[in-house]
UniProtKB/TrEMBL annotation:
UniProt keyword Nucleotide-binding present: yes
Organism of derivation: Slackia faecicanis
Lineage: Bacteria, Bacillati, Actinomycetota, Coriobacteriia, Eggerthellales
Keywords for this protein: ATP-binding, Cell membrane, Ion transport, Iron, Iron transport, Membrane, Nucleotide-binding, Transport
Pfam families: ABC_tran
Protein name per the record: ABC transporter ATP-binding protein
UniProt GO BP: iron ion transport
Subcellular location: Cell membrane
Recorded topology in the membrane: Peripheral membrane protein
A GO molecular-function descriptor: ATP binding
Highest taxon listed in the record's lineage: Bacteria
Gene Ontology CC terms, in alphabetical order: plasma membrane
Stored InterPro entries: AAA+_ATPase, ABC_transporter-like_ATP-bd, ABC_transporter-like_CS, P-loop_NTPase, Siderophore_ABC-ATPase
Residue intervals of the ABC transporter domain: 1-235
Amino acid sequence: MRGVGFSYDRSRPFIEDVSIGFERGAVTSIVGPNGCGKSTLLKVACGIVRPCRGDVLLDGRNVRSYAARERARRLALLAQGPRPPAMTVESLVACGRFPYSSSQGRLSRADRAAVEHAMELADVACLRSCDLRRLSGGQRQRAFVAMTLAQDADTVVLDEPTTYLDIGACHDVMGLVRRLNEECGKTVVLVIHDLDLALRYSDRMAVMDAGAVTAAGTVDEVYASRAIDEAFGVDLHRCGVGSDEVYVALPRS
Ligand SMILES: Nc1ncnc2c1ncn2[C@@H]1O[C@H](COP(=O)(O)OP(=O)(O)OP(=O)(O)O)[C@@H](O)[C@H]1O
């Protein structure tokens, strides 16, 4: 994104002059207070909405210049809190294969294998025949993650993928994000509220505040910049060493 501006209401820009690159092959978390524009930034970055100024490039080309199917083969977006449709988990996950499907919409053998693989990765194979509307919030969230994985795009964009999940399931999803990155070579960009999860599982971070990106870089660079403390009005502490490190945000004294 280069010099990007976006406005919901023409009279005042909401995002102003944002320039940020999401590094290929990295897991990047975007954090920031409620309403600061994280989901909006993702929508602009994925070409869902048109910026009023600046450029958004995907693989060197304007993200909105791709045909929908072509873009969906490069970029998979799991939006925030999608409403569950009346279908089974397996049918939902199969929707992830839409960018590859024939005009009759039939699934090929490769499509079926991708659906199966995605359900296993997200641990929803045992729920395949369940109606989405009857699942818990966490089970449903995992089903939507599986649909996004079935899309098999190089870049996966997740807007709050750990919403509704208990802490064990949060670690499972973030562990899955790391495996997708390390074993499948996916570039992952996600918005997340839990600072410890963000700092623990990401390579890079971006901090947003009031429609602007106030810091971006490696986890260590962003932690050292104190931009997270400023954005949330907290004192962020890193305790422990190595894999026992934990990040704790305390109220400012
Ligand atoms: N479709 C829309 N039309 C008008 N305003 C919108 C629309 N979507 C979002 N907004 C406004 O834009 C601002 C930023 O919203 P956004 O969802 O990007 O924030 P966020 O940082 O993702 O918030 P949260 O952490 O609460 O999910 C909010 O004030 C919101 O009300």
